[in-house]
Amino acid sequence: MSRKDLQHLKLKNTEKDLKRPENTCEYKDLPHLNFAAGIPPYLRGPYSTMYVMRPWTIRQYAGFSTAEESNAFYRRNLAAGQKGLSVAFDLPTHRGYDSDHERVVG
């Protein structure tokens, strides 16, 4: 199956048809705009609805010296609308410090 065979496909979201931005004149000649996702050149990802039905999540990778500090930070971010956590369980080691290094606390 070629890309041309898939040009008739139209993805829909749960609310209504997807619409392109108003200023599409500068993008109209880009060859990849009508490619189906999951078909090379994989511009959306390996699945046809990638990032259309489920947007990217933006997370902050973090960890602190104590469980209390880490927990407070994660709870603040979740309360502010963050959708998930990227937890650094051993951040000093991840950053290249030995656990007995003088700058490592906790």
TrEMBL record:
One of its GO terms (biological process) is propionate metabolic process, methylmalonyl pathway. GO terms for cellular component: cytoplasm. Residues 23-106 form the Methylmalonyl-CoA mutase alpha/beta chain catalytic domain. Residues 1-20 are annotated as: Disordered. Pfam families: MM_CoA_mutase. It comes from the Bacteria. One of its GO terms (molecular function) is cobalamin binding. This is Methylmalonyl-CoA mutase family protein.
